[in-house]
TrEMBL record:
Protein name, UniProt field: DYW domain-containing protein
SUPFAM superfamilies: TPR-like
Keywords noted in UniProt: Repeat
Occurrences of domain DYW (ranges): 595-687
Compositional bias ranges of the Polar residues kind: 59-73
Single GO biological process annotation from the record: RNA modification
Amino acid sequence: MYHYLRNRRNQRHFPFPFIENFLPTKHCNWPFSTFTVQTPNANPNFEAVPSNFHAHSPQRPNLLSTHNLTSTHPAAPSLDKSPPFDQNSLNDIISSNKIITSYIRSGDLSSALRVFGNMTVKTTVTWNAMLAGYSRKPGKLTEAQKLFDQIPEKDTVSYNIMLAGYVQNSDMETVWSFFNSMPSKDIASWNTMISGFAQKGAMAKARELFLAMPAKNSVTWSAMISGYVECGALELAEEFFEFAAVKSVVAWTAMISGYLKFGKIKKAERLFKEMPVKNLVTWNAMIAGYVENCRAEDGLKIFRIMLRYGIRPNHSSLSSVLLGCSELSALQLGKQVHQLVCKSLLRDDTTACTSLISMYCKCGVLDDAWKLFLETKSKDIVSWNAMISGYAQHGAGEKALHLFEEMRGEGIKPDWITFVAVLLACNHAGLVDIGVRYFDSMVKDYGVEPRPDHYTCMVDLLGRAGKLVEAVDLIKKMPFKPHSAIFGTLLGACRIHKNLELAEFAAQNLLNLDPQSAAGYVQLANVYAATNKWDHVARVRRSMKDNKVVKTPGYSWIEIKNTVHEFRSGDRVHPELASIHEKLNELEKKMKLAGYVPDLESALHDVGEEQKEQLLLWHSEKLAIAFGLIVVPYGTPIRVFKNLRVCGDCHRAIKYISAIERREIILRDTVRFHHFMGGCCSCGDYW
Ligand SMILES: [Zn+2]
Ligand SMILES: [Zn+2]
């Protein structure tokens, strides 16, 4: 595969060979020339508050305006009349102003101040540059005020900088009174006000100003549209967008983000297509929007188009794409994105590396995740969390805990996500006492408030060890109202330990909180069946029907050479079905010889989980695995994904298959990863 890609690359000199297969659809036939990449890291929904006086002020100042020269030299003559400066002095002032501005831009206020202090002659531009540094820095507003008062000849720009400082670092009343006191206001002053109110969600005030404003430009309209989108008033945003006299790329992007935020994908797509100029933020909004709306495949598609048109992704694009890859378990594309990252400036970017680690973990390739984790130069808490969670979800509990200790050793403070992973690790490794200790230490030593997720882990942990009464006690002691997931977890534990009494308690609570929970009914029916209470089983089925509970149809999928093959239980569609059935029949004979007895209870119990009651042998995960055995070369692990929990019989059968075929089989279900090898599963038969 990669060999093939390399050859193609050499032939065509095209940086992203893997996207060549993709042809733009009719929605995407815009010409390349309309793309411009602007401010790649800008917030997609807000044009910068015009505190940056260079950006939006129509009176963009020269670095030197001679009529505003001021001097701190005591003997300086009257400046307005006859500036005594020769060309050299002027050049000095210009270059000092430049130096100050560049220091301010890089956030180095003290160096800027040093240059400022050494200047014997300053222009208003000098003062403004310094003022901009102070007014933007949080906590420096008083200094900014003092500086502002010292400016000998303030111009509108000085006032606008100060106004932006107030907008960013002060209450809106102060802002308002300063705005009213301004001797003259230009379009930038009004925009600063409107953006400020809009960003604080005070849309009524923003609108008032908007109506009073004498002349509006694209920034004004963008601020209003973004503001409405942010506070969820999509219709008002739409109205403004429609009537906007000038629509900037920011306005278009804000509108697209708004549509995607509210799941209106069609409308977003239409605007995206109509939009005359797109920037990276627009593309990122589309990619992320698709992924967030469970349309990961479209997200990846649009990402490929973006690359095709030569737009360089930033880490925000990559994290969305990798999230999409994780969701689709599209390992091949994930690997291609990895190559892309390696060749780009994002190679050493912590966020990009962490997204990759997370993608590898979610696609079930822990070795690659670990390799990358080791290569990541500066790891932050998110990187550690990704790797610890990765190990925990794959049942490598001890590795996860070891890594956690290493992280503590490096002096990195764990957060609540770390502890979810740690408790999960204890859970999967069956380390009940250690888990309880970590849970206590989380609150006492790290001041991390327990969240519902932590309690769910704890109930799982206690339940696995058969400490069902303790689990119920913990639920009762929770500082918040129990959530349905926690009862689902308890119910699962009751099923495994066949505790009918607590199972009924758990199921009742679960179904009270979530009467549509198919899993709740199924699990309860399973408990009754396991204790031979068939009349109860029938009653549960009836009430499931009465409540019109919709069961999620079970399906499994496997990715082979960039194509995802999906199997339903009792599938009749897949073209390779005949050889798959043949393979399964052959396997069944070998499995039975090795001692496998089909778990007929599973066939009955999973009536709810699989859409139809089918022969156990044709459960979707078995079909996908048989297909994998046929097409995946020996020595390569078979990775199968399932949208529901794996059933008892499949779990048992896959253990046999892994031993008979001497293959590593990795199955991800909704609960966790199962690594089958040599007849055993990493979950220790508890899931
Ligand atoms: Zn099954
Ligand atoms: Zn397992």
